[in-house]
Amino acid sequence: MPADATAPEPTQNATDPNEPILVADNVVRRFGGLTAVDVDHVEVPRGKITALIGPNGAGKTTFFNLLTGFDQPDTGSWTYNGHDLAGVPAYKVARRGMVRTFQLTKVLAKLSVIENMRLAATDQRGERFWSAPWAALWRSQEREVTERAYALLERFKLKEKADDFAGSLSGGQRKLLEVARALMVDPELVMLDEPMAGVNPALKQSLLGHVKSLREDGMTVLFVEHDMDMVRDISDHVIVMAQGRIVSEGTPDDVMSDPKVIDAYLGEHHDTDITEEREAAELAEKIAEAGGKSEHLEG
Ligand SMILES: Nc1ncnc2c1ncn2[C@@H]1O[C@H](COP(=O)(O)OP(=O)(O)OP(=O)(O)O)[C@@H](O)[C@H]1O
After folding, report:
1. pTM score, two decimals?
2. Transmembrane region positions (predicted)?
3. For the CA of 56, the nearest atom of ligand 1
4. Is residue 203 a contact partner of residue 170, using CB atoms and an 8 Å limit?
5. ipTM for the assembly
């Protein structure tokens, strides 16, 4: 047992600010006859906010799951800070400083907010934390975890809710809690899965501010999102997936004016019902509008 069992695994040495933090090559994931992910090459720039967008079923969540060790690809490799991550289990990926958020589950909803925070630290430290035989060491580690948890709850304006059940929080507050939980391990790369889903307009601005503050604190953010306003507002870089592949990349303005992106949103729905087709058309319109809006602002 090493002296400091709770210390994050050593972060890797390739931290040149100009080097991408994450690089993936030839990552393929099939479900039976369906190829959900087929990414030839993609890079996530360090210290920036990158959005991963695409129509429903494009493979975004599956790709997230693969990168973070929650699923295994059929083929492919990817590196984080220059080190191979293929085959590394999710808790070790988190220990190395790459964490992702999830929707809260029922079990977590029945725990208090502070318990959720504390659990995030222990989850990601792995079982050996709890099997440590030294009670004194435990206690001091627990104290540190609790202090960190309260400090983060304060930052995310959730301190008053510390003893409430997580299930009693609003959708937006749960999203804040998810981000706060992710920060328990002091990550370098934070991956957010649809942070705006279920968030009311009042909390949206606050959440946007928090995501931007992660970048100000030197973290890299990669997020999956359908909310095009958020994508346009805060992304430095946008990666677009459709049918498992990367179809476009660039600044928000670049991708939102890329005909391949509009096609991707419309094309997915040629054979589907009229409601889905209308939704896709509206989304494509929103992308076009958002692109136009930013051109207008810049002009
Ligand atoms: N466990 C699974 N078994 C079978 N098919 C799956 C599984 N997970 C995902 N898929 C399929 O893989 C494709 C990609 O799904 P995925 O959820 O990654 O897309 P997405 O871009 O995240 O979509 P959304 O924006 O709707 O969340 C879809 O066709 C989906 O039905």
Report:
1. 0.82
2. none
3. 26
4. yes
5. 0.97
